[in-house]
Design a protein that fits this description.
- This protein has 327 residues and is an alpha/beta fold.
- It has one domain (26-326): TIM Barrel (Alpha-Beta Barrel), CATH 3.20.20.70.
- The chain has helices at 16-21, 59-71, 99-110, 141-158, 172-182, 203-209, 229-241, 255-265, 275-286, 292-306, 316-326; strands at 32-39, 45-47, 55-58, 76-82, 115-120, 133-135, 138-140, 162-165, 191-196, 245-249, 269-273, 310-313.
- Strands 1, 2, 3, 4, 5, 8, 9, 10, 11 and 12 form a 10-stranded mixed beta sheet that branches. Strands 6-7 form a two-stranded antiparallel sheet.
- Its EC number is 4.2.1.24.
Length: 327
C-alpha cells in the first residue's frame, strides 16, 4: 500500500483506560433528580401500570424509598402529589395540609440534607385535569397565576428547597417569584419548566398522577413540538422574570433545544427524561429487544452532551447503581 498521510483517531480508542482518559461527557449521580409520587392513605405502594418500577407511595411507606435514593448518592428528588379530593380550582394544591406539603415536611424532617423540589402545578388537583382556572371551557391565564403563587408559598412554608412550576402560564415565574419574595422566601430558587412541549410522551405520567384533562388538550398553553425559536423566547422570559434553572421537557426529541437553551442562556439547564421515554425503554427491555443498562446510559450521556446540567429521570436509581458498579 502506498503511504498516505492520514489521522489515526483510533489511537485514542485503543483500550478502556485510554477511552476513559479522553472521555468528554460524564454522567454522575449528582446530576440526577428522582421523581416521587405521594398519595393519601396508609400502606399504599401502587406500581404504576404503564411505568414498571415506579410507585405511588403513602406517607407511612415513602421514607423507605427516599432512604434508598439518598443511599445511592442521588442528591435531590421532585415530589408529585396524588390527592384524594379534587375541585375546580385545585384547592388541595395550596392547602397547608395538602399531600405535597405533608410529604415535604416529613421528608425534610427525616432527610434534611436531601434537596426536595416541589412540582408546582394544579392539574393533579383539579377535577377537570387542566393546569389552570376554567371559565366557559377556556383556561384563564391571569387568575391562575394567583393560585400558582399561593401553591408555591405553601410549598416553601412546608420546607421545599426549590419550587418547580410546570404549568406554562404566561408570567408564571414572575408571579411565583413575587409571591415567594413577599412571603420572605427570597432564597428559594425557581426551577422553571420553561420549555414544555405539548408532547405525546406524557401518557404514563398522567396515569401515575391521575392528571389527564377531562376535556380538550393542553395545546393552548404547552408548546408546539415544531417550534425551536419559541423555546428561546420562553426561556428568555423566564430568566427575566427570575428563574434560576430552566427545564426542557421532554428530553430525547428535543436535544437540539436543550443545546440552544444552554448556549443562549448560560443558566443551569435540566433535561426532563419523561415518562413515555422511560416506559418505552422498559417495555423494550422486558421483551428482550434492547440492553436496558446500555441504552439508558447512552440516553443519559446524550442529554449531558446536549448541554443539560441536570437530568430529571425515572431511571435515576438504576443509573446511580450502574455508575457505582462501574466504579
Amino acid at each position: 500500500m502506498k503511504h498516505v498521510e492520514f489521522n489515526r483517531h483510533r489511537r485514542l480508542r485503543i483500550s478502556d483506560s485510554v477511552r476513559r482518559m479522553v472521555r468528554e461527557t460524564h454522567v454522575r449521580a449528582d446530576d440526577l433528580i428522582y421523581p416521587i409520587f405521594v398519595t393519601e392513605g396508609e400502606g399504599v405502594k401502587n406500581e404504576v401500570n404503564s411505568m414498571p418500577g415506579v410507585y405511588q407511595w403513602s406517607l407511612d411507606l415513602v421514607d423507605a424509598e427516599v432512604e434508598e435514593v439518598a443511599a445511592l448518592g442521588i442528591p435531590s428528588i421532585i415530589v408529585f402529589g396524588v390527592p384524594d379530593v379534587k375541585d375546580g380550582v385545585g384547592t388541595s394544591a395550596y392547602h397547608d395540609h395538602g399531600i405535597v406539603q405533608k410529604a415535604i415536611r416529613q421528608i425534610k424532617s427525616n432527610h434534611p440534607d436531601l434537596t426536595v423540589i416541589a412540582d408546582t402545578c394544579l392539574c393533579q388537583f383539579t377535577d377537570h385535569g387542566h393546569c389552570g382556572v376554567i371559565e366557559d371551557g377556556k383556561i384563564l391565564n391571569d387568575p391562575t397565576l394567583d393560585l400558582l403563587a399561593k401553591t408555591a408559598v405553601s410549598q416553601a412554608e412546608a420546607g421545599a428547597d426549590i419550587i418547580a412550576p410546570s404549568n406554562m402560564m404566561d408570567g408564571f415565574v414572575a408571579a411565583i417569584r413575587h409571591g415567594l419574595d413577599e412571603a420572605g422566601y427570597h432564597d428559594v430558587p425557581i426551577m422553571a419548566y420553561s420549555v414544555k412541549y405539548a408532547s405525546a410522551f406524557y401518557g404514563p405520567f398522567r396515569d401515575a398522577a391521575h392528571s389527564s384533562p377531562k376535556f380538550g388538550d393542553r395545546k393552548t398553553y404547552q408548546m408546539d413540538p415544531a417550534n425551536r425559536l419559541e423555546a428561546l423566547r420562553e426561556a428568555q422570559s423566564d430568566m427575566e422574570e427570575g428563574a434560576d434553572f430552566l427545564i426542557v421537557k421532554p428530553a430525547l426529541s428535543y436535544l437540539d433545544v436543550i443545546r440552544e437553551v444552554k448556549d443562549h442562556s448560560g443558566y443551569p439547564v435540566v433535561a426532563y427524561n419523561v415518562s413515555g421515554e422511560y416506559s418505552m425503554v422498559k417495555a423494550a427491555s422486558q421483551n428482550g429487544w434492547v440492553d436496558e443498562k446500555a441504552i439508558v446510559l447512552e440516553k443519559m450521556t446524550s442529554m449531558k452532551r446536549a448541554g443539560a446540567d441536570l437530568i430529571l429521570t425515572y431511571h435515576a436509581k438504576d443509573v446511580a447503581r450502574w455508575l457505582q458498579e462501574t466504579k
